[in-house]
């Protein structure tokens, strides 16, 4: 079986690379299956503190695989859309932060994968958008749901309705990206960000992700109660005791992730 998804672990950071450069890394059935399996293995590995997702070569991902949909009947299209959706949901449910590192095209399902990540860094070559409307469809892997949560509905409507492709600076100004760098230093900057997160106390990092994700689905009272429910268990962790002791003793904390 061809391998489209590879995974490298360095220290506590895993970098996933989607490798189908001849199709601009489009999310074929095999890519989705392999990415889901890879994410499941990462989720089960408690030594992982942060994850990076990137595309091989010049591009992130140019979307769902149009050749998987072009001649699909309704049932086949539904099965494929659900497969892509499940794959991206697995990314979103990874308990540690996932960073999308975007060069070149991040379109349709590729942009949806980036939105399923927690942080998005881009190179200046990045070109982002939702061209689905031009294919007679709409985003089907979270674009209509995750994009308005990031940009607000007006910008989301504009991007999805027009199917326009925007550059990295425009995406940055819309809050779609955390930062934009020269392409040459994107990998180094992404690694640096992942390493910074990986050095933080792991249990607190996981709770940040849980609490911030919950903020999108809960009203403010429920959200504040949920925040407290995330905070309190941290007082039973080694790293909380170490972090506060180090502050009091005016030294650097040594976190162990527990
Ligand atoms: N699916 C399958 N193959 C794709 C692809 C995709 N999404 N995007 C690009 N490719 C393939 C092309 O067919 C081409 O293959 P061949 O060399 O075998 O012909 C190869 O990748 C290179 O692409 P181009 O020759 O088109 O490269 P370009 O530089 O001229 O154009 C592009 C780049 C503007 C990104 C153009 O490829 C394009 O418009 N791609 C489609 C983008 C798109 O519509 N994405 C949304 C898909 S639908 C979706 O994602 C639904 C969802 O929400 C789940």
From TrEMBL:
Transmembrane segments: none annotated. Gene3D superfamilies: 2-enoyl-CoA Hydratase, Chain A, domain 1, Lyase 2-enoyl-coa Hydratase, Chain A, domain 2. InterPro entries: ClpP/crotonase-like_dom_sf (IPR029045), Enoyl-CoA_hyd/isom_CS (IPR018376), Enoyl-CoA_hydra/iso (IPR001753), Enoyl-CoA_hydra_C (IPR014748). GO terms for biological process: fatty acid beta-oxidation. Keywords: Lyase. Pfam families: ECH_1. GO terms for molecular function: hydro-lyase activity. Belongs to the enoyl-CoA hydratase/isomerase family. This is Enoyl-CoA hydratase. The lineage of its organism: Bacteria, Bacillati, Bacillota, Negativicutes, Acetonemataceae.
């Amino acid at each position: 079986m061809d391998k489209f998804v590879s995974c490298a672990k360095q220290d506590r950071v895993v970098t996933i690379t989607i490798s189908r450069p001849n199709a601009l890394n489009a999310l074929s059935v095999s890519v989705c299956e392999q990415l889901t399996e890879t994410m499941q293995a990462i989720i089960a590995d408690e030594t992982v503190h942060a994850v990076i997702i990137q595309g091989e070569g010049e591009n992130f991902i140019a979307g769902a695989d149009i050749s998987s949909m072009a001649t699909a009947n309704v049932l086949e299209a539904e099965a494929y859309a659900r497969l892509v959706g499940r794959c991206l949901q697995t990314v979103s449910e990874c308990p540690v932060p996932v960073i999308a590192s975007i060069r070149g095209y991040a379109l349709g399902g590729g942009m949806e994968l980036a939105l399923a990540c927690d942080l998005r860094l881009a190179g200046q070559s990045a070109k982002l958008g939702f061209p689905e409307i031009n294919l007679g469809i709409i985003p089907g892997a979270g674009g209509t749901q995750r994009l308005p949560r990031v940009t607000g509905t007006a910008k989301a409507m504009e991007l999805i309705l027009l199917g326009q492709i925007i550059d990295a600076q425009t995406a940055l100004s819309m809050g779609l990206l955390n930062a934009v760098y020269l392409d040459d230093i994107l990998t180094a900057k992404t690694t640096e960000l992942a390493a910074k997160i990986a050095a933080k106390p792991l249990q607190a990092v996981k709770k940040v992700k849980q609490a911030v994700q919950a903020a999108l689905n809960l009203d403010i009272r429920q959200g504040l109660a949920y925040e407290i429910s995330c905070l309190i268990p941290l007082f039973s962790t080694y790293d909380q005791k170490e972090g506060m002791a180090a502050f009091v003793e005016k030294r650097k904390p040594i976190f162990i992730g527990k």
